[in-house]
Write a structure and sequence with these properties.
With about 150 residues, the protein is α+β, with helices and mostly antiparallel strands. Helix content is about 25%, strand content about 20%. The protein has a five-stranded antiparallel sheet, with helices on one face. It is found in: Cell membrane.
């Protein structure tokens, strides 16, 4: 019983069975297609989004760098930028060091038609000296009384 020797399988006519070359290549083609759709294509999409973001940033934008610095862009050049990390602290970095741009939330505006006075502050008495007792179901503060 020799398991290390590769013995060709003989067909009925005595010749070695070879099979279709397409059948031998099919697993490799399937692995290549899966590799493309699961790894290469999403990476290209992320890379295109990153390049688009780098083109859109402008002076005054808040950004985060790949090193984790948060700052505001004060000057942009073709390959570099000046980033203000704190008031008076300006560093020059590569433009490609921007990891993501931070977008500020839209300001909240109220129309004159909005009825903001519906909430009555007098309804709630926050100066009440009654202690809140945890576990007091009926609200009469009898949980702390000695029986």
């Amino acid at each position: 019983m020799n398991l290390l020797i590769d013995v060709p399988v003989l067909a009925d006519n005595g010749a070695a069975a070879t099979g279709s070359p397409i059948g031998a290549l099919l697993p490799f083609l399937l692995i290549g297609a899966a590799f493309y759709f699961l790894i290469i294509r999403p990476q290209r999409k992320r890379q295109a989004e990153q390049q688009s973001m780098l083109r859109r940033v402008s002076e005054g934008d808040e950004v985060v760098t790949i090193g984790g610095f948060h700052g505001r862009i004060v000057a942009l050049e073709e390959d570099t930028m000046e980033l203000e990390l704190a008031p008076g602290v300006i560093v020059t970095m590569a433009r490609t060091a921007i990891s993501r741009a931070l977008t500020e939330p839209a300001p909240v505006t109220f129309d004159d038609d909005d009825d903001l006075d519906e909430f009555d502050d007098d309804e709630f008495d926050f100066d009440n000296d009654d202690d809140i007792v945890i576990g007091d179901v009926d609200g009469d503060n009898d949980a702390n009384r000695d029986s």
